[in-house]
User: What shape does this take?
Amino acid sequence: MPTYPRLFQPLQAGSVMLKNRIVMGSMHTRLESEADGSARAAAFYAERARGGVGLIITGGYSPDAAGLLEADSGALDHPDKIAEHRVVTAAVHAAGGLICLQILHAGRYAKHDGLVGASDIPSPINRRRPRALSTAEVERTIESFAACAALAREAGYDGVEIMGSEGYLISQFTATRTNTRSDQYGGSLANRLRFALDVVRATRARVGTGFLILFRMSALDLVEGGLNAEETLQLARALEAAGVDVLDTGIGWHEARVPTIGYMVPRAAWRNATARIKSAVSIPVIATNRINTPELAEALLAQGVADLVSLARPLLADAEFARKAEQGRADEINTCVACNQACLDYLFRNQVASCLVNPRACHETLYPVGKAARAKRVAVVGAGAAGLSCAITAFERGHSVTLYEAQADIGGQLNLAKQVPGKEFTETLRYFRTRLANSSVQLKTGRRIGARELAQGGYDAVVLASGVRPRLPEIPGIDHPKVLRYDEVLSGAKVPGRRVAIIGAGGIGFDVAEYLSQPPGAAGISEFLASWGVDPKGMGDGGLVAPGSLELPRSIVMLQRKSGVPGKGLGATTGWAIRMQLARRGIPVLSGVSYQRIDDRGLHILHEGQAKLLEVDHVILCAGQEPVNALRAELVAEGIAATLIGGAERAEEIDALRAMQQGMQLAYSL
Ligand code: NAP
Ligand code: SF4
Assistant: This one.
């Protein structure tokens, strides 16, 4: 009996037989903007096809110039572009996979001056005002969707997915929030749904029945003036009648003030919204968002929530997710931890997407699988994020690796990060443990290795990934018993009292505030939905209700010396939710403070020109870190050159992302 029988049951979807229930969801990668973009995209998708996924959906391609997300985003609007797409479809088919092109018209989310919308109402997340499409232009846009699908068929795709969620153009037609038209595409619900349905009908008419049409509909809009549950079901039924083969789902418009995919969202939080759609139609339905393990995917299928599961980021994290699950090797899966740090946050910074736990993602051609020209004996000192990444990659490259760790266990700072609510680094550590166990890397824990011993080891290369220690700021009273370090708190070694001041409002300061302010039971789906004002039955406008109130375990104040916005360095796509969550919990951040002293009464500060006393039980230090790398000088004295990576090289702004990237890159350079 296979471990996940439902996940690996074939499914007839329209004219296509899918070999399993795992769909690789659409993700922007920015590869289309790279000079060698087609070759890189082909390698990226083909690796996932070889990894056993049932169906791949590409990132979004616009059907016309107005619908481009950005001026240099991908469009499939001319036969000239077919050749570059054939490179991708041929590679995926050669690898045994199926691939659909996503057609995405950005509407008022477009970041160029030619943007258009259902009406001329700008989005709160885009400073540009869209021009309202005339009725004739709406009809031309419908036609461009159909033409794009026909070009996709010529380019070798197995079907198309019409992007009708997340607040892009099609959503903008459905919602009163963005549609104030007075023609046949505005006003009544039937009129507002017309654009979506006309796009589907025109596309079906153009491509015939032998070509898959998926439609990604918004299962929950999560914005005021969005559709409610009943209207959403009407749309689902109408889409089925119009000729859609498979209904994919999306959650929340991009401008929604509810986090939908970040680590603070519980796994499978949106299952009810998907299940409602599944119960309303007879075509296959795809569940999405925060599904990152085969166990959970199997459970959702078993419970009848959906017929297929969409994994997007989890397939960035591990191209072989499906194959490993099918072969009962789920413990080898490199699990997406929903951090957004290298996928969505990179896109916001105009970089090609990648993955924190898998820095090869989208860079497959730059870091090809294979052995180094000469196998070397390599010592890696430190089994935190940087050292683990380096040691495992070096082993894969054919080197003989010894990994030294002073602590009894691997993980370094990941052992602290995994304590923060929602941060899934326990999975990352499980992955590395399995990889180490299945490799010939010699792991030596529980003893600090010295320079002399390393020198005697006869290594060809020594890598120091010895990490960081917390910075202890020079404040009078820093050795007072009220003072705790962040590592003591997150490790559970010390438990702070009910009144707490946090020195430092960087990433770790916010992590500690989150850890200490988590209300009891807040990790559950219903508590999450209530705290963010989401109606579990989706009945409200856009599926929203008033947020519930919270009972907090302690009072917390955060402090920083600089006067700028607190938490500025947090990720672009998660930082707003972290800040909002802590603000909702009534946690103030005082900026521009100067620390005077810590004594029995609490923390004395100067703030806005006044001396103030914060009467707290504990002061927690989250004031950054310093590198731990004294071993390097000792090695130099022994005549050994060592390479520093991760926090040992530079403690400023060190996080798991930079650590893992550096670890992998160094291993490739050996
Ligand atoms: P950080 O983000 O650089 O923050 C350090 C904090 O300490 C700042 O608020 C700084 O603010 C304060 N500080 C620095 N020197 C100080 C001193 N001598 N006395 C008092 N305060 C001092 O570093 P981190 O919080 O340790 O995080 C490490 C890295 O991990 C960062 O790159 C961070 O972005 C990342 N990280 C990110 C996340 C996330 O995105 N969710 C979570 C955890 C960690 P002032 O100088 O203004 O006082
Ligand atoms: Fe997942 Fe983070 Fe990787 Fe994005 S960067 S795919 S969220 S682990």
